[in-house]
Amino acid sequence: MTDGSPGPARRSIAPPSVLGDPDRLRALSDTGLDAAPDEAFDRFARLVSDLLDVPVALVSLVSADRQFFPGAVGLPQPWSEHRQTPLSHSFCQHVVDIEVPMVLPDARLYPRVRDNLAIDDLGVVAYAGMPLTDLSGRVLGSLCAIDSKPRAWTAAQLRTLADLAAACSSELRLRIALDGAQEARRRVVQAHERLELLAGVSETLAGTLDVGTALRRLAATMVPLLADWCLLTLIGPNGLPREVVSVHRDPARAADVDRFGELLRTGLSSESSIRAVLRTGQPRLGSVASLADVTRGTTDPEMASIASRLGIASYLSVPVRGVGGTVLGAITLVNGGQRQQFDDRDLLTAVDIGRRAGQAVGNSSMYGEQRHVAEVLQHSMLPRLPVVAELELAARYQPAADRVEVGGDWYDAFVQPDGDVIAAIGDVAGHDIEAAATMGQLRNLVRGNAFGRPDAVGSLMSNLDGAIRGLRLPIAATATLVRICPQRSGVHEVTWSNAGHPPALVVRVGGAVEALEATPEPLLGLARPSPRSSRSTSLATGDTLLLYTDGLIERRDRSIDEGLAELVGRLTGTDTLPLDDLCDLLLTSIGHREDDTALLAVRAR
User: Fold this and answer.
1) 594 confidence band (pLDDT: 50, 70, 90)
2) Under 8 Å CB-to-CB from 185, ≥6 apart: which residues?
3) Residue 242 — very low, low, confident or very high, per pLDDT cuts 50/70/90?
4) Which residue in 238, 446, 542, 572 has the fewest CB atoms around it within 10 Å?
5) What is the mean pLDDT of residues 356-364?
6) 119-143 residue pLDDT tens
7) Contact (CB, 8 A) for 219 and 245
């Protein structure tokens, strides 16, 4: 005998049907034992060998297709190394079948076992096996004594073997109970993790109103906590995938999973589980899956090839439902072979996530529509800048991030009949439709009050204040009003008046930055009239005047003065930067926008 493979069988005998009983196999699995030495069960084998004076003793557990020995003494090679045999070499399978002790003084004389290959290959002649049972009485295997010659087993020997089998069965039951306790503990931990996951999903989805951002964050939340990889699919008006977000737990598989998501948009067949979920709104659970499922569900052979690299052994797919139960998309989770298969608990968790995701997607879609309307409305209220030979003008307006509301930030610039340019910027309190409407009124008042009048800007600001009070307009606003007198000589006179607004800045040729500070004067629209002053400076060719609202400098974590100092530092040395590039630079440097921002830049030519 040179290896562990069985020799030619004398007669093919089907294994007993009881070996495949699911409950018995589950209990066998719960012992946690396999074809590897276990000190406790090796000790039982040694006791049997010593007390019964036999050369071979085994703690043999029998599965549906093999027997294995967590306890063994005296097995010849290679069986002692492998610690298992096929059923063709198993006497213990018959103990499992008959559920009572099997005692054979000479196995060669008994029809049930005389053709068993263990007689020749393992030298089994005399055999005595006692059932090893779980708490429900299911026979998992046998504690057996084996001799290579005929033997008359005594009653004392069989009683000793039975007592040892009872103790061995108790040890098996303890292992099963321990596994059950560990499984219960695992389920408690898993339930806690799922509650944390659901709470995290809600927090994740509530943290943004952008659909794409919400889907990416949701995918990152579920992988790897719930799955090895996932696909988040949103459908278009035709009911087919429009947007797919895909994530894998292994960063090295990012390109593969992205490609799979890209192909999924157009590569699903009529038998696809994802399409079935999108069509019916019913979840699907594939607790056992293979590449055949991918091949059947796709029209592009590349998808199966990619799936083989990503790993697929189990999957589930659930609908993402919006208001009224409308199916907006699907969440598909996939596990590879190294991870536990999905079960009904996973499906319920995923269904709950799909419901929460549907609410977030619906809110995000509504937000997107409202934000678009708001931005169109806001920009419709902002003017077209005039063209002036001696001056270059540029302006920007940017609403706050993740907010639908229009706001009260505004800017304006227009040319007087005498050629002077009036520039203004302001901020009406509030971030809603009412604030935007008030802003529109204030801008029109500025134009009506200033156009065609040569008054100093301080007087214009006082007149504006009086008009607000006289018309009883509910306006509270900061503003800066500037008059620029373009000169062909290249030096332009500038006068300004500031009503509680952040100071204008001038970037001089050479890169130095000058703040147009003035004695603080109250906001527009206060109950009592306040005198308004005019201040003056000049712009030489290449100098840039910057008017802006506080969204450019205000943050929750710092003071206005700190924000202004940072802005001055950012502007220093930007005198050669094209005006549009300068405006874009200022907006992109804000990061997360906490407030609306308007800015107006004027450069002397």
Assistant:
1) low
2) none
3) confident
4) 238
5) 75
6) 999 999 999 999 999 999 999 999 9
7) yes
Chain position carrying tokens 């002077």: 420
How far from 80 is each of 39, 57, 68, 85, 513, CA to CA, in Å?
15, 11, 11, 10, 87
Asked whether 90 and 117 are in contact (CB, 8 A), the reply is no
The arithmetic mean of pLDDT across residues 474-489, rounded, is 89
CA dihedral 51→54→59→63, nearest 10 degrees, is -150
* pLDDT interval class at 206 (50, 70, 90): low
**Could you report the per-residue pLDDT of 508-523, keeping only the tens digit for each?**
999 999 999 877 788 9
pLDDT (tens digit, 9 = 90+) per residue, 528-537?
A: 777 899 999 9
Distance CA 88, CA 82 (A): 15
User: What is the helix (H) or strand (E) element at residue 300, kind and residue range?
Assistant: none
In this predicted structure, the answer to whether residue 35 has a pLDDT above a threshold of 90 is yes
Question: How far apart, in whole angstroms, are the C-alpha atoms of residue 481 and residue 458?
Answer: 8
- Coil, strand or helix: which one is 485? strand
Residue 2: band (very low, low, confident or very high) from pLDDT cuts 50, 70, 90: very low
Give the residue from 219, 197, 243, 232 showing the smallest Cα distance to 332: 232
**pLDDT surpassing 50 at residue 156:** yes
How many angstroms separate the CA atoms of 332 and 336, rounded? 13
| Strand (E) or helix (H) holding 450 | helix 433-450
| Pairing mode, strands 84-86 and 391-398 | unpaired
Residues 6+ apart with CB under 8 A from 64: 15, 19, 20, 25
Which long-range contacts does 305-308 make (Cβ < 8 Å, 24+ apart)?
Answer: 306/256, 306/257, 306/259, 306/260, 306/263, 307/260
Q: Name the band, by pLDDT with cuts 50, 70 and 90, for residue 9.
A: very low
Q: For residue 279, what are its two tokens?
A: 């069509």
Q: Is 259 left (phi over 0), alpha (psi -120 to 50) or beta?
A: alpha
DSSP one-letter code for 115: T
Q: What 3-state class would DSSP assign to 342?
A: coil
Contact 272, 300 (CB under 8 A): no
Instruction: Please tell me the predicted confidence (pLDDT) of residue 4.
Output: 41
- How far is residue 408's CA from residue 477's CA, in Å, rounded to a whole number? 9
Q: What is the mean pLDDT of the chain?
A: 87
List of residues 6+ apart from 590 with CB closer than 8 A: 398, 551, 552, 597
Which tokens is 320 given?
């993402």
CA atoms within 13 A on the CB side of 122: 33
Asked if residue 488 lies in contact with residue 525, where contact means CB atoms within 8 angstroms, the answer is no
**Can you give the length of the chain in residues?**
605
Query: Beta strands 477-485 and 491-499: pairing type?
Result: antiparallel
The angle, 0 to 180 degrees and rounded to 10, between the axes of the packed helices 155-206 and 211-222 is: 160
Report the pLDDT value the prediction gives residue 593, as an integer from 0 to 100: 62
What SS3 state is found at 338? coil
Reduced 3-state DSSP string for 62-111:
ECCCEEEEEEEECCCCCHHHHCEEEHHHCCHHHHHHHCCCEEECCHHHCC
Contact 232, 223 (CB under 8 A): no
